[in-house]
């Protein structure tokens, strides 16, 4: 591999990692906030929570950004 290709690859790896970290933080934050809001809004029974919005955010993240978002979606579900 020549030097120009190596230099180009060295610059893209940190950018890709930073982009993934931003996406993961977005998924974790939005799923966490909507999950907490779903627990606070319980009309009938305190044991029943609204799970559709956080689940939809997780599915949308997986469909949009692929299987690399599996770990943040899994962590946010805990």
Which short descriptors sum up this protein?
0% strand, mainly alpha, 3 helices, 77% helix
What is the tally of beta strands?
A: 0
Shape: elongated
Structural class: mainly alpha
Return residue spans where pLDDT drops below 50 for at least 5 consecutive residues.
none
What portion of residues is helical? over 70%
User: SSE order in H/E notation?
Assistant: HHH
Tally the helices: 3
Provide the β-strand percentage band.
under 5%
Distance between the termini: 44 Å
Instruction: Write down the overall mean pLDDT.
Output: 82
Radius of gyration: 18 Å
Largest sheet entry: none
Report a brief summary of the structure.
The protein is mainly alpha-helical and 78 residues long.
Notes on the protein architecture:
This protein is mainly α. 77% of the residues lie in helices and 0% in strands. It has three helices and no strands.
Give the topology.
Elements: H1 3-40, H2 52-65, H3 70-77
């Amino acid at each position: 591999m020549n030097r120009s290709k190596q230099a180009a690859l060295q610059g893209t790896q940190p950018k890709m990692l930073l982009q993934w970290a931003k996406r993961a933080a977005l998924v974790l934050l939005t799923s966490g906030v909507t999950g907490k809001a779903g627990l606070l809004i319980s009309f009938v029974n305190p044991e029943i929570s609204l799970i559709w919005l956080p689940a939809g955010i997780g599915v949308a993240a997986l469909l949009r950004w692929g299987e690399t978002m599996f770990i943040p979606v899994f962590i946010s579900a805990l």
